[in-house]
Amino acid sequence: LCDSYNLHLAYTMAKYGMSMCVLGMHEELRHFNIAVNALWPRTAIWTVAMEMISTKAAQNNCRKPTIMADAAYALLSRDSTNYTGNFVIDEEILREEGMKDFDQYSVNPGATLLEDFFLSDVAETANFGTATSILSLDVLIDETKQRITPDIVQKIQAIYQFDVIEGPKIHSIYFNLKNGQGGIHKSLDNTQHVDVHFTIDLQTLYKLFSGEMPLTIAVTSGKLKIEGSMEKALLFSQLFKPLNKRKA
Fold first, then answer.
1. Which intervals hold domain SCP2 (predicted)?
2. Which of 92, 124, 143, 222 qualifies as a FRET site for 118, CA 20 to 30 Å off?
3. Which listed residue (5, 11, 160, 174) is catalytic?
């Protein structure tokens, strides 16, 4: 598993343990009219925990804790006799309350937001386990090049190495999202330093880039291994979905 799990095991256990508590306790306390719900952020929230696993450079790609405060108020205001056992996402419950302006919650309004690392979108995970046709590596690279823009390069500022497993072969691909217009290459200049090293099989790589498998599932299932800067690894996830899904 990734370095984040190795170095922050207690935090990871707490996140998933919360889910287990909701599943059990909402039934246990239902007859007392006590509601038990879980509240999750849609995006990364700039807190002490986030600062521990990143640097201040990631702050601009996070939302403020105030969105969780407002979402918690909305959640606690619900009728406890019938609204219990739910896994609530901050943005969704606020939309239900009529909220439309979410830029007010961004540390840097207009910046691309990081998705919460522990959150798997139901719409994306529903069919991620079904068979997916494996595209050739060259076709996948050509399609991905269209997603790299000067704006992405300016925001990410990192170089990534992918070791892609295709049967008995291992192909190395380098994403230069640090210099100039950016690009994808099959070799790297000796003067350049790799910030993040990914190891992944071709089928999983395709699922990530097409939006069929969330980053969380790829990591926790062991299909994606990460070495290097976790902050930069999270930033790269901006390329893991089609362009029309990248913006929050």
1. 146-241
2. 143
3. 11
Domain limit, last residue, from 85, 105, 125: 105
Q: Is the pTM of this model over 0.90?
A: no
The answer to whether the CB of 186 falls within 8 A of the CB of 173 is: yes
* Structural contact between residues 90 and 68, judged by C-beta atoms closer than 8 angstroms: yes
Looking at residue 185, which CATH number applies to its domain? 3.30.1050.10
Q: What angle do CA 146, 152, 155 make, to 5 degrees?
A: 170
Residue type, 246: R
Q: Which of 65, 90, 105 is the last residue of a domain?
A: 105
**Residue-wise pLDDT tens digits, 89-101:** 999 999 999 999 9
What pLDDT digit, counting tens, does each position of 113-159 carry? 877 666 655 334 434 333 333 345 677 777 788 889 999 999 999 99
| Whether 19 contacts 67, CB under 8 Å | no
Closest CA to 115 of 157, 61, 59, 75: 61
E strand spans, the chain: 38-40, 87-89, 158-166, 169-177, 183-185, 196-201, 224-228
Q: Give the whole-number percent of the chain exceeding pLDDT 70.
A: 82
